[in-house]
User: Fold this.
Amino acid sequence: MKRRAAIGLAVLAAIVGATVAAKAPVGGGAKERVFTLQTVDEKLFRSADLAGKPYLVFFGFTHCPDVCPTALFELTGLLKDIGPAADRITPLFISIDPERDTAELLKLYMTSFDPRITALRGDAAETKAAADAFSAFYKKVPTASDSYTMDHTAGLFLIRADGRLQGMLDMHEPRETQLQKLKLLAGT
Assistant:
């Protein structure tokens, strides 16, 4: 009984913590997150297009063996589970591999996930600017097979409609916590 109560309190604390963090002002004004990338249809997508809208950003790459497809698959399920509230969030997948992630490949890759997730790509400079706008990390890592993989930030950035960082969505969190964070984001 004490164990259940402790677990229940821990989940409640995580939800309350996320709520308080989302409502608390973060260092005066919102960090300016300026970037320009292209959609899979090669249309320009500017950070200004997100003004006044809550959105989330996941940085990854199509050749990722596990983290990226798993995160996008889980995000697809979470968006479905929060119902109509998901339509108020703009989910973005930003490629960190401009060498291999062509518009055509990204378009094909994204057919496995929720169609509301917008895939974006850019050249090396545009990709770096986008990652820097979120303080996201990525690095090309050579592999033994004369190829490479990418190390990168694996969490999803949750950005409120006012442009402030609500927090991060970690795919290792309890599902109920993830759902509460997304519902909270949709309400900003």
The radius of gyration is 17 Å. The domain at 2-186 is CATH 3.40.30.10 (Glutaredoxin). The chain has one domain: 2-186. Residues 2-23 form the longest helix (22 residues).
